Amino acid sequence: MPRCFCCNRPIPPGDLAVRFPCPNCGKIIIWRCSTCRSLSRPYKCPVCGFAGP
After folding, report:
1. Cβ neighbour number for residue 13 with a 10 Å cutoff
2. What would the 3-class secondary structure string for 1-53 be?
3. Could you count the other beta carbons within 10 Å of the beta carbon of residue 10?
4. Phi then psi for 5, rounded to 5 degrees?
5. Average of pLDDT values for 32-50?
6. Rounded CA gap, 42 and 1, in Å?
7. What pTM value is reported for the model?
8. Band of the pLDDT at 51, cuts 50, 70, 90?
9. Which residues fall within 8 angstroms of residue 18, CB to CB, at 6 or more apart?
């Protein structure tokens, strides 16, 4: 089960989460849960260190 990059909670099926490749390096898929998305919590790519809203 994927985990949110912001809060580290598991993302269950059906959650309004998003997944996208890192905007900087594209080497990793970043997952964000619906809660962190709505609160605009920051995330950080573990490969290149890119941080986003």
Report:
1. 6
2. CCECCCCCCECCCCCCCEEEECCCCCCCEEEECHHHHHCCCCEECCCCCCEEC
3. 11
4. -70, -20
5. 94
6. 21
7. 0.84
8. very high
9. 31, 32, 37
> How many Cα atoms sit within 13 Å of 19 on the Cβ side?
11
The yes-or-no verdict on residue 53 having pLDDT over 90 is no
Q: Cβ(46)–Cβ(28) under 8 Å?
A: yes
Residue type at 52? G
Exposed e or buried b per residue across 26-52, where buried means at least 16 C-beta atoms within 10 angstroms of its C-beta: eeeebbbbeebbeeeeebebeeeeeee
- Write the pLDDT tens digit of every residue in 1-31: 899 999 999 999 989 999 999 999 999 999 9
